[in-house]
From TrEMBL:
Localization in the cell: Endoplasmic reticulum membrane
Residue stretches making up the Glycosyltransferase subfamily 4-like N-terminal domain: 13-172
Topology versus the membrane: Single-pass membrane protein
Protein name: Alpha-1,3/1,6-mannosyltransferase ALG2
Length: 449
């Protein structure tokens, strides 16, 4: 049995959060003790497993700001993650054998203060590539953050990535970490969360989003962020309108279901931008915008849709195409990044250049082809079962955790018998006690930790 602590910045709704929950469920299924620590957890904007008692979640340091005057998001994200690590090391009674952190590596030096515990860092994608540096001030602001990311990532005992694409990007971005070979651990699905539902229940869940008389239902599921390129599916629908007869066009409908957080300014702004684009493109009557769907609604939509439109370019992995294929829903995605490893062109869907006319052409094949949705859907289901099953994910993660636990035990025994190490450990404990006296009042202020 291994005691595991997951550390994640913001446990909301997204691909990274889904992976953390699935990893926690996988290790718990194998009999390990698991707890998730995060800087923010909103019971109204999270996955069910984190609020129904399935997974234990501890929110720490939510009293810290997320930004300052609409800026410094990265700085505060790092501070919040470091604070979670400080809580774990100095204040928490939870003593893990293994730390598994993701997205932000800045917490790793703090976690290293636990001398025996092993640290696994899951790199979804280098953070330094997720922002632009258009001004000198932005370059100066990002320089220490980028350096810290690369340095602290190298301190992890093992680095995991979500795809071969991300592995290649890792080496191109972190040039000083050439000796580290990340291990690929594909995200997977917990099939129990994606069961087929009866027609009546499905209709009840999505009737508010789907006008009557619609036969060709196209679906987009992504966060309302500009980098997700959701405008592409609206522009593709505009091009599709040119290809369709009027009577066919009346049967076409697009549902854009996105992760939406009221705290995130970009979510609110981009949602309005997309609605305006739909109106100006003349396709607003054929589009429904939905914010933050539930797990049940997502399953119902995937089960109903003719196909999924997945618009991000160079996506690190992309869990939504996997979810769609498991629900026998074909996928149209950009021919780059993670989807090139998950979607088989003309077998489980289409891989296209990120241009509206290319996506529209692929959409038209589903309108013209009677059995293409069924055939590609079955192919996609078989591919997920063979390559991205929760059982395969569980076995690989469990094997990795057990191997690290074996090293942990050896290190613990070594320190138990090594007199010099014991003295060093005692000195370090005294330092930790002093630091605890400093940080405890801050972390416990107003009961926020």
């Amino acid at each position: 049995m291994v005691i595991v602590a997951f550390i994640h910045p913001d446990l909301g709704i997204g691909g990274a959060e889904r992976l953390v929950c699935d990893a926690a469920l996988a290790l718990k299924k194998q009999g390990h003790i698991v707890q998730i620590f995060t800087s923010h957890h909103d019971s109204k904007h999270c996955f069910n497993e984190t609020i129904d008692g399935t997974l234990s979640v501890k929110a720490v340091a939510d009293w810290l700001p997320r930004q300052t005057f609409g800026r410094f998001y990265a700085f505060w994200a790092y501070i919040r993650m470091i604070t979670v690590a400080l809580y774990l090391i100095f204040l928490s009674d939870y003593k893990p054998d293994i730390f598994i952190c993701d997205q932000i590596s800045a917490c790793i030096p703090i976690l290293k203060l636990n001398r025996q515990a092993r640290i696994i860092f899951y790199c979804h994608y280098p953070d330094m590539l997720l922002t632009k540096r258009e001004t000198l001030i932005k370059k100066l602001y990002r320089f220490p953050i980028d350096w810290l990311e690369e340095f602290t990532t190298g301190l992890a005992d093992t680095v995991l990535v979500n795809s071969n694409f991300t592995s290649e990007t890792f080496h191109r971005s972190f040039t000083t970490l050439f000796s580290i070979q990340p291990k690929v651990l594909y995200p997977s699905l917990n099939f129990e969360s994606f069961k087929q539902m009866d027609t009546q229940k499905r209709k009840e869940l999505i009737e508010a989003y789907l006008p009557p008389g619609k036969e060709f239902i196209f679906l987009s599921i992504n966060r309302y962020e500009r980098k997700k390129n959701l405008a592409l599916c609206i522009n593709a629908l505009k091009e599709l309108k040119k290809l369709c007869l009027l009577k066919t066009w009346k049967k076409v409908h697009l549902i854009i279901a996105g992760g939406y957080d009221e705290r995130v300014t970009e979510n609110k702004e981009h949602y309005l931008e997309l609605r305006e684009l739909a109106v100006s493109s003349g396709v607003s009557e054929n589009i429904t915008f939905v914010c933050s769907i539930t797990d049940e609604q997502k399953v119902a939509l995937l089960q109903t849709a003719t196909c999924l439109i997945y618009t991000p370019s160079n996506e690190h992995f992309g869990i939504v195409p996997i979810e769609a294929m498991y629900m026998k829903c074909p996928v149209i995605a950009c021919n780059s990044g993670g989807p090139k490893e998950t979607v088989l062109h003309k077998v489980t869907g289409y891989l296209c250049e990120p241009k509206p006319e290319h996506f529209a052409s692929s959409l038209m094949t589903f309108i013209n082809g009677d059995k293409i949705t069924t055939t590609m859907g079955e192919n996609g289901y078989d591919r997920v079962i063979k390559n991205f099953s929760f059982d395969a994910f569980t076995l690989k993660l469990d094997s990795l955790s057990s191997a690290h636990h074996s090293i942990y035990r050896k290190e613990k025994e070594k320190q138990h018998y090594d007199g010099v190490t014991k003295v060093k450990g005692w000195l370090q404990e005294q330092v930790q006690l002093c630091l605890q006296c400093v940080f405890a009042p801050c972390l416990k202020e107003k009961g926020h930790y």
